[in-house]
Write a sequence for this structure.
């Protein structure tokens, strides 16, 4: 159930990142991890792994060098909330990274910035320079024995590098491809050293939690999905933009907030997400029901859902790293089926085979990109069967 809450938009405006950092420097690393764990904060990039557990594993891992990496790749179609955070609240993100470094014992931080966000680089470098100048980065942070500095590395536009192991491969100068797991990055990450990789928003909320406390964070959300979340909402709505809402908000309530009450469907989670039809708008946007890294794309009543499926599958075919056969070969077959349906040359029997193939791609692909690549197509076939089957040859 959703906990009661008093919503106030843009919580980040009310947080002092430097106070959060000072609080972290005044306590032990174990206390920081305990606070993050008690808040029940989960990764805001979409995977939803408990942040406190990730930091705890990294702290326990042996290594002379440890890293804190901020995933600012934000390549998911329909997602733009990290760009807003980095533009308006860079110090909150950098403070969160420094708090993580204190917690796990890291001395080096890296922001992996999306290649298309080059225009943000100057402002971010300026913010880092300010932090170095007054002792919030560098050797002996705030007069303590903690050394930590942050550099920025640019991505090259590969969607797969949003996955943390492919991101690390890219940072090491290799082709962006996902690694086999285990080992996990908390134990064997950057240069085979223990590494924490978290999303931009996750680090920002970690700083908020250190300032306000875990109980403050848990007041909103659900029992399994605590806190607020930033959503990038676009599509056929009156008021597109970035919205801060409690996890557990229903799709219907979100649509009311953005002016999309007449929606036919909502794709939640971007190309890797799922399509929620109108009859399921009472579902909750949270990790235990409909999870998302932040992308919410609304489709009005006039939209052709086959065109929607085609658009997302074109993206997945283009962005597949090609490493594993299910994703590399399977997604073009899904796209081919959509186009056959549009041309009226796909039989109902063949559509059933392609749906089965989509399920196999989900099970057999190596990384999260492949495993989720057919989600939108499969959910559109499931929920808009009448619309789609009307175009299949031999459909009854």
């Amino acid at each position: 159930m959703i906990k009661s809450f008093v919503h106030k938009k843009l919580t980040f405006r009310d947080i002092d990142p430097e106070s959060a950092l000072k609080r972290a420097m005044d306590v032990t690393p174990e206390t920081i991890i305990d606070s993050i764990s008690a808040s029940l904060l989960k990764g805001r990039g979409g995977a939803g792994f408990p942040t406190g557990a990730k930091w705890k594993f990294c702290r326990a891992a042996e290594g002379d060098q440890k890293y804190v990496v901020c995933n600012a790749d934000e390549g998911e179609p329909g997602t733009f909330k990290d760009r807003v955070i980095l533009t308006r609240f860079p110090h909150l993100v950098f403070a969160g990274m420094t708090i993580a470094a204190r917690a796990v014992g890291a001395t080096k931080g890296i922001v992996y910035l999306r290649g298309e966000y080059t225009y943000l680089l100057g402002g971010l470098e300026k913010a880092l320079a300010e932090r170095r100048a007054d002792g919030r980065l560098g050797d002996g942070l705030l007069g303590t024995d903690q050394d930590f500095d942050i550099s920025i590395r640019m991505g090259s536009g590969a969607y797969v590098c949003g996955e943390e192991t492919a991101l690390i491969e890219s940072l090491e100068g290799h082709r962006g491809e996902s690694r086999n797991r285990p080992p996990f990055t908390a134990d064997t990450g950057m240069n085979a050293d223990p590494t924490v990789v978290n999303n931009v928003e996750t680090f920002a909320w970690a700083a908020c939690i250190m300032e306000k406390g875990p109980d403050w964070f848990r007041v909103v959300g659900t029992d399994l999905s605590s806190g607020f979340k930033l959503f990038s909402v676009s599509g056929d709505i009156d008021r597109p933009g970035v919205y801060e809402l409690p996890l557990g908000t229903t799709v219907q309530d979100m649509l009311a907030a953005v002016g999309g009450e007449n929606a036919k469907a909502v794709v939640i989670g971007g190309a890797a997400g799922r399509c929620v039809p109108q009859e399921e708008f009472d579902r909750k946007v949270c990790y235990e029901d409909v999870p998302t890294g932040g992308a919410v794309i609304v489709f009005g009543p006039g939209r052709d859902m086959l065109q929607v499926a085609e658009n997302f599958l074109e993206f997945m075919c283009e962005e597949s790293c090609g490493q594993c056969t299910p994703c590399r070969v399977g997604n073009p077959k899904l796209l081919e089926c959509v186009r056959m349906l549009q041309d009226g040359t796909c039989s109902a029997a063949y559509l059933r085979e392609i749906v089965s193939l989509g399920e196999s791609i989900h099970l057999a692909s190596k990384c999260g990109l492949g495993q989720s690549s057919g989600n939108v197509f499969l959910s559109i076939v499931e929920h808009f069967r009448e619309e789609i089957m009307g175009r299949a040859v031999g459909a009854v």
